[in-house]
Amino acid sequence: MIQKHKKNTQKFMVSAFFIMLLGMVAGTQDASAFFQDNTQQEIEYTLYKGEVQDSKSKKPLVFASLAIEESNISTITNAEGEFSLKIPNDMGDANVIVSFLGYSTKTIPLAQLDKEKSKIMMDISVTALPEVNIEVPKDAEALVRDVLKKKGENYFDDPTLMTAFYRETIKKRRKNVSLSEAVVNIYKTPYSSFKKDGVKLYKARKSTDYDKLDTVALKLQGGPFNALFVDIMKYPEYIFSQETLDHYIFKFDHSTRVNDKLVYVISFEQNSQVIDPLYKGKLYIDAENKILTSAIYSLNITDKDLAARLFVRRKPRNAQVWPTDVAYRVDYREKNGKWYYSYSNVLLEFKINWDKRLFNSIYSMTCEMAVTDWKKNMATEFPKAKDRIKTSIILSDEAIGFADPDFWGQYNIIEPEKSIESAIKKIQRQLRRANSDGGTSIP
Known about the structure:
About 15% of the residues lie in helices and about 40% in strands. The chain has helices at about 5-15, 140-150, 150-155, 225-230, 305-310, 395-400, 405-410, 420-435, and strands spanning about 20-25, 45-55, 65-70, 75, 80-90, 95-100, 105-110, 120, 160-170, 175-190, 200-210, 215-220, 250-260, 260-270, 280-285, 290-300, 320-335, 340-355, 360-375. The N and C termini lie far apart (about 55 Å).
């Protein structure tokens, strides 16, 4: 019988994703938004808003990519298919490239977009496996191994400085109760290097509706690293190490087209003889160049008590907590023949079973990060240890309040879901009321 050692499993869970801290709500102190660099360059830009939808069903396309042609500027649609794209005025003649897995890519002139509410309709692209031009590999696992082996050839081989927008959200059932956002600088090391990336916090803000938190303070530990470590090609050891590859079954699923490139879809799941929880999902691989362009996968939760021990760091004594779903996604983009990390998200859904209460509390925690711009870091600048954020960071403790609203207008962001607006207004009212009473704590 094949069995993956628990020591290795725990290394992945604990070192890569620091998900949650639970504790009883106490007073929460307020301060101005935290930032490390207050230098701000004036930029004149135009804001474009809209929604990306399926042309037939009219359903919103979640996490569709919008990129400005011949530039490094990009953004992602949110959970309602909406986008907010800020373009410098000197790029008014540029085109927007809109792409989504399984759909034909669209190129749209900026001049054709409505600045207030554009609707972009996408058509499904179904492609049969090629018969002549490209030979279909017979061994799906061998293809995956080959992709991992070629990361030094196909992905950025120069140090890169990226600007990224990061967001954490907490929901109680379907209601938003907490939102934390940050602009971060990612000092990306070459994909062929074993050196980990550095992250520096530029600015951050948060809003929390404590009335909906059920007397529990929920915190996500790890901040941007939760999303950054989903970069499979940079950190394959967290899912497909040389030891764990043998514990998966890989199969060809179907093919599709992304940005007019033929893409193989490889499904994978853990071998039924493996006891410890691994992953299942789909890998999207460029057929011609053997490049991973996207991955969508989830943890196979076979033992909820083990999962609880790995993800829950602290909890009230009168509650049982366990995750019901842990899911991940990562997307890559191409520039001049080289690919790089573009977007990722992590979703954790869990239940809290309270002693002497009839109903469970159901929460979901989501974090996502999108690279909005980048440039080569040929001077190999890397922030000092004191300036880099740690993997143990709790962003919501660093960023408090919604100060400096003008700052956020200069950065491409993932447009917030509409329902978070009411939570933001409520917390602002609470802060004003608390300040007028001579204090800053929120009960």
